[in-house]
Amino acid sequence: MTGPIYARMAVIGCGLIGSSVIRAARAAGAVGEVAVADASEAARAQVVELGYADRVTADPAEAARGADLVVFAVPVMAMGEAARAAAPGLAPGITVTDVGSVKGAVAEALAAALPATVHIVPGHPIAGTEQSGPDAGFAELFQNRWTILTPQQRTDAPYQEAVERLTDFWTALGANVELMDASHHDLVLAVTSHLPHLIAYNIVGTAADLEGVTRGEVMKYSAGGFRDFTRIAASDPTMWRDVFLANKDAVLETLGRFTEDLQALSRAIRWGEGDKLFELFSRTRDIRRGIIAAGQESAAPNFGRDARAAPAPDTNRQQS
Amino acid sequence: MTGPIYARMAVIGCGLIGSSVIRAARAAGAVGEVAVADASEAARAQVVELGYADRVTADPAEAARGADLVVFAVPVMAMGEAARAAAPGLAPGITVTDVGSVKGAVAEALAAALPATVHIVPGHPIAGTEQSGPDAGFAELFQNRWTILTPQQRTDAPYQEAVERLTDFWTALGANVELMDASHHDLVLAVTSHLPHLIAYNIVGTAADLEGVTRGEVMKYSAGGFRDFTRIAASDPTMWRDVFLANKDAVLETLGRFTEDLQALSRAIRWGEGDKLFELFSRTRDIRRGIIAAGQESAAPNFGRDARAAPAPDTNRQQS
Question: Which of A 113-172 lie inside 8 A of B, CB atoms?
Fold first, then answer.
């Protein structure tokens, strides 16, 4: 690389993803200077202490001033306000992107808040942990993960160049980049991410309130499947509240389908229709094999997240 | 240890759990000889090749002959038939147990099929992987996992001694042993294991059939939460069909509660009630912290199952 892809990056909102973008970009030499804006005084103090930003401020416009890339990394429903606050600092022709988990609503909010002279290229890195805050980020978060960009319907050369440059940026951070229509993104993610989170939140809530089983027992015997759900259901509440509100239509649509299917499954159990259960359970197993075949995960038994406690493949799974 | 806890163990059904019991018992020196019965010729051939049994047969009675511990490790709905087949080989006073994920129905089936002279102590090790077969087992599977025993309501000394000896056996295999009423077991496991599996099977099925999103896309972007469900939904179809049929009442009861809660959540999304969503999502996060505090899992970011591909904590999680 002859030099950084962006001379100066401003990150508005420095939580898990914002701080990971900074760390990864610095590690890759993809940016020169880094400015951070965060509304939280505690977060700003943490960023200063961690020392990975050249400038830290409460004012998005101040952070954005002089930047050729501005990354909005606040919760989805806060994007519009953050963009309005940053707008006075944006120079014409620069690239503005975001990392929100919903793209349709965010693209609209950014377009409404920002001057027409900037190139808005909404984005979504499909990566994260259940941790949050400026100290939760790490440089490897995007390695071998997908980042989806949802460019506007524009064919002019400067905009195309902005999309290409942002693609190079995410590639430098280790991500595989895919371009997609915003509404298609929101449907795909409703299925692969938003619905799974909703279900996980729901089942953990149900288990906590169930009579006849104490919360202690639920925790104690969580290795039989439940624990995987608790991990997902420990994700940032603000972020996920916003995701469901901002992607309401696609989430409710897929949730409707899920509920229909669950009713059929419930009926099959009630009437002892073992063949129907077996057919579904065999089909879902094939899908898992498809994911493994697609290289999304290793087929070999992995030393899972409990590997330190017990050196056994996947011992927190099933048979329960 | 002055000698093995059981001089001769017979394992009826040699899949993931059966073979793990054998490997773990051998590693711990908890058994002298091991006999295996399996209905599948392919499985028997594999057991012979793997070389961990002293005798391999298709006939449960033959395997059981001379054993002081008989372990039934077949799918839950096959327990009764396996027990009837083994009954002629059982000597009076020996201990009979099982590893099924449902205890009420299995306890009944065993009691109905076996002579009153044997000590039936139903059991359930809460451990497993999504793999199956005689070659899927490993000696460490039960390390630091719970094994629940659901003894009969008997107070006579020989039976109490049988329970204690079986407790010693599982402890030697590395498990933490808990005694519990069979029906309470079935309710606890309905929440912590059976419902999570049902939900996982269902969501993977829903995703596979959804219009507008290809199966390839579902697989490609599964890192946002969905992938955890596919792992659970890859569990053995026969085993899980049997679990739902054998624990119908408790599963339908907890499923009913789950569905009620999901309707309320759906309504909150539809009406944009962000506060309700936030409240639930904060509460479930606390439950996760409870599990971590209870020592069921490490609080630190773990190098998860994808650690080999990308050395980053938990990169297959959330923010999506």
Answer: 124-131, 138, 140-141, 143-146, 148
